[in-house]
Amino acid sequence: MKIAYARVSTQDQYLDRQLEALEKYGYDKLITEKITGTKKDREGLNNLLDVVRDGDTVIVESISRLGRKTLDILNIVEELGNMGVTFVSLKENMDTSTPTGKAMFQMMCVIAELERNMIAERVKEGLQSAKKRGKQLGRPKMDNDKVSVAMRMYDSGDYSIKEIIEQVGISQGKLYKEINKRKLKADHN
Asked: Quick one: what percent of the chain has pLDDT higher than 70?
């Protein structure tokens, strides 16, 4: 049996591109999920591993659909191989039923991890460079005067939360955070 597996990381992403490629290749069963590839325990992946049998073929649009970490991907493909299951990745044009496909798969995993590490390194360097140039990273600090005014309005009891956040320009979350912070402080005294 040919079993296709498609995954995207978030609910906002679409499987369409993967599904088109998988349909063109052909399959008997399709398993899809929307969850990050960094998690090892995924319902769809677990389902895939439960249904495959010796002689089956698992097809993915790209090896990155199996996971984010090279070791995780290699472990999944090794587990499939131990079960007598062939792995096919369409984007990388590899098929583990061949020696060349097995070797190519291992090389592609190493290259994919190298690429992710290089991207992470560039991001880290960019953040360090921005800090050196005096850029403020992260969320902007809330003006203490705004917080103070918002808390006085809250204490007066004359304003609703909605009125306070609209008039002062503070977020509802920030206002509640300050209210809770003061409550905690009062409880500890």
From this structure: 97
Using N-to-C axis directions, what is the helix angle for 99-132 and 70-82, rounded to 10°?
160
User: What pairs with residue 2 in β-bridges?
Assistant: 57
Residue located via tokens 């990050």: 36
Look up the pTM and report it: 0.58
Q: How many CB atoms lie within 10 A of CB 27?
A: 16
Within a domain: residue 120? Answer: no
CA distance 131 to 134: 5
Beta bridge partners of 8: 34
- Cβ neighbours for 110, distance < 8 A, ≥ 6 positions apart: 70
Both 104 and 47 in one domain: the answer is yes
**pLDDT tens-digit readout, 38-68:** 888 899 999 999 999 999 999 999 988 998 8
Structural domain including 29 reads 2-115
Task: Out of 9, 64, 89, 160, pick the active-site residue.
Answer: 9
Q: What total number of domains does the chain contain?
A: 2
Name the token pair of 100: 């060349």
The reply to whether 123 falls in a domain is: no
C-alpha–C-alpha distance, residues 118 and 98, integer Å: 30
39 located within any domain: yes
For the question of residue 62 being annotated catalytic, the response is no
